[in-house]
Amino acid sequence: MKKPIIIINFKAYDTSFGKKGIEIAKKIQNVSKQYSTEIIVSVPATMIYQLSSELEIPVFAEHVDGVPLGAYTGSIMPEMIKDVGAKGSLLNHSEKRIRLDEIDDALKRLRGLGLESVVCVDRYDLVVPMSLLKPTAVLIEPPELIGSGISVSKAKPEVITRAVNEISKVKDVYLVAGAGITTGEDAYRAIELGADGIGLASAVMKARDPEKIVEELVINSLKACDENE
């Protein structure tokens, strides 16, 4: 992953798949290329192959299961997402919680396959326990702010600052801030507070002009990173 880390989670909106999903993904890539900034798109499993084939930006799965290959009907394994071009996966999103042992199993499998991982947590005191499992990044998102349009960087800045303090105890794990990130100002503030990047969904996926929103987020994220150095 490259700072500023920007993760756009497609979720399961009507814009997340099919022609609409492809259109938004290509608009995101346009901004990524224009500003030479890596933007990760986390997409439904049904979209991984097509988007990985058509895009140069990293495509992640929204979830994987840590179970081994075998008789596990309906499961999505790390081997499966790698085979269709994914570069990594989200894990434990508040809308797709999994047990700690399942997180650990999935992370081990992802690492073994050379795939990246982002584990979601809902409070700062989980940052270190999850970091010790060695994901690529931990994404902290207070669930009450997800999709609210009220950013964590404004409403609960202490969540980010405490998480930054916690993750400093662990080496080589990034901290990403999410929940309610909507504007460039939200992104700027999150990184100014010490986060390595931002995660968001509805601000882009439900926007009338998603490319404009992504551009604003990228410009402000880059500005905050430059000022933090």
UniProtKB/TrEMBL annotation:
- SUPFAM superfamilies per the record? Triosephosphate isomerase (TIM)
Specify the pathway: Carbohydrate degradation; glycolysis; D-glyceraldehyde 3-phosphate from glycerone phosphate: step 1/1; Carbohydrate biosynthesis; gluconeogenesis
Where do the TM regions start and end? none
Q: Does the keyword Cytoplasm apply?
A: yes
User: InterPro entries from the entry?
Assistant: Aldolase_TIM, TIM_sf, Triosephosphate_isomerase, Triosephosphate_isomerase_arc
A Gene Ontology annotation in the biological process aspect, one of them, is: glycerol catabolic process
Primary place of residence? Answer: cytoplasm
GO CC terms of this entry: cytosol
The source's superkingdom equals Archaea
Q: Which PROSITE patterns match?
A: TIM_2
Q: Which HAMAP family match?
A: TIM_A (MF_00147_A)
**Subunit info?**
Homotetramer; dimer of dimers.
The molecule here is called Triosephosphate isomerase
